Amino acid sequence: MLIGALALAAGVVLGLVWDVAVPEAMEPYLPIAVVAALDALFGGVRAKLDKIFDDKVFVVSFIFNVLVAALIVFLGDKLGVGSQLSTGVVVVLGVRIFGNVAAIRRHLFKA
Amino acid sequence: MSESNESEAAHTKRRNAIAGALTALMVGISGFALAAQLSRDEDKEFSAAREPDLVQILDSLDARRERIRAEIEDLQERQRALDSDTQGSEAALEEAEKRAGDLAILAGTVGAKGPGLSIVIESDTKHPTPELLVDTVAELRGAGAEAMQISDNNGASARIVTSTYFAAVGEGLDVDGITLSGPYTLTVIGDPPTMQAALSIPGGIVDTVRRGGSKISIDAHDEVNVSATRPPTHPSHAQPTD
Questions:
Q1: What is the pLDDT of residue A9?
Q2: Residue of B nearest to A37 (CA)
Q3: Which sequence spans correspond to the domains of chain A?
Q4: B1: pLDDT confidence band, cut at 50, 70 and 90?
Q5: What is the rounded CA–CA span in Å between residue B128 and residue B148?
Q6: Which of residues 48-67 of B touch A (CB under 8 A)?
Q7: CA B236, B241, B242: angle at the middle one, nearest 5?
Q8: If contacts are CB pairs under 8 Å, which of residues 196-235 in chain B contact chain A?
Q9: Cβ B148 vs Cβ B187: under 8 Å
Q10: Measured between alpha carbons, how far is A41 from A4 in angstroms, rounded to an integer?
Q11: B84, exposed or middle or buried, with CB in 10 Å at 0-12, 13-18, 19+?
Q12: Cβ distance of B35 and A9 shorter than 8 Å
């Protein structure tokens, strides 16, 4: 848990300090990928609190979520419904994040 | 047995370390991507917009540009109309002022100056008769006189306009109610040679005055002043027609 928090902080600092240029081909997918990663992160925290956290599950679900989200957006762009599909993905992921955060809240505050 | 247990425990430990490192890497990557996305969104307003959105924005900008261009054309048209209106009114005003000036000179309500003659008629007899002066004025008008006045040596003067009358009063003259006594000075604005020739023809005014025993002298000047004025008259019956 501590290592995870440290890694997150290190990643944020690195991303802020290093003014990285996002490749143009990746530009539409990065926001969705970030949302998917957030979903995986909150899922991991929740699993940790539920004491069912598993490294392997986390790593696989993280990579898989990000890839699927990017794929859905890519397909949507090809089909001409990119904005609608990415809205849908963001809604689904948002609902999941809310669910995970609610579970975490129940664990932490017992409410 | 214990050896294999030990190696298995080491294996599990190594596996756990790798998984922990991978987890930390994933978390770090997501943090990095989040930060990169946030900092990128700060610089470019439209970079995150999708193609259809951009097309829509472009369309609405085009429509707005068309509207504004139409508005500009409308306003320019109005400006042109107002400009030509102003020019028209200015020209009309100038014309009206010029006309008012012409009419004022004709009606004798303002002073006038210009090239012309000053004619002095001196007499010790009853001459010149009012008839002679009327003839003189008519002759001068025929020769293109534009403004006239008659004055005497006492400083009295009268503007001669269309309605002016001459009447004999004792030794002197009554001109529009102003009494003058000789010698008389006629100040006339017009073309000096023409008027001089008109007065000097054989049997004309000069001959008539001299035959009557009076003296007449005619002097041409580059500028004479007709300073006597008449109050403007306001017709109470006549209305202008267009």
A1: 81
A2: B30
A3: 23-109
A4: very low
A5: 18
A6: 48, 50-53
A7: 150
A8: none
A9: yes
A10: 9
A11: exposed
A12: no
**Which positions in chain A touch B31 (Cβ < 8 Å)?**
7-12, 14-15
- Summarize pLDDT for B21-60 with one digit per residue, the tens: 887 887 888 888 888 777 765 556 666 666 778 888 899 9
Phi and psi at residue A91, to the nearest 5°:
-65, -50
How many independent structural domains does chain B possess? Answer: 1
Report how far apart, in Å, the C-alpha atoms of B242 and of each of A47, B23, B237 are. Answer: 103, 103, 16
Alpha helices, H only, chain B: 2-43, 51-107, 130-142, 192-200, 205-211
B75 at interface of A, judged by CB pairs closer than 8 A: no
- Chain A residue whose CA is closest to B49: A28
Say whether B177 sits in a helix, a strand or coil: coil
CATH code where residue B183 lies: 3.30.70.1880
Average pLDDT estimate for B57-64: 93
pLDDT confidence band for B210 (50 / 70 / 90): confident
Q: What is the pLDDT of residues A12-70, one digit of tens each?
A: 888 777 777 767 777 778 888 888 888 888 888 888 888 888 888 888 888 888 888 88
Domain-embedded: residue B76: no
Residue type, A52: I
Q: Which of A18, A45, A62, A79 to mutate to test the interface with B (most CBs of B within 10 A)?
A: A62
Say whether pLDDT at A1 is over 80: no
Asked if B76 reaches chain A (Cβ–Cβ under 8 Å), the answer is no
Residue that has been written with the tokens 């306009």 in this structure: B161
**Structural domain containing residue B178:** 112-226
Asked whether residue B22 is assigned to any structural domain, the reply reads: no
Residue B137 to residues A36, A43, B118, B119, B180, Cα–Cα distance (Å):
113, 121, 13, 11, 16
Q: Do A66 and A32 meet the contact criterion of CB atoms below 8 Å apart? A: no
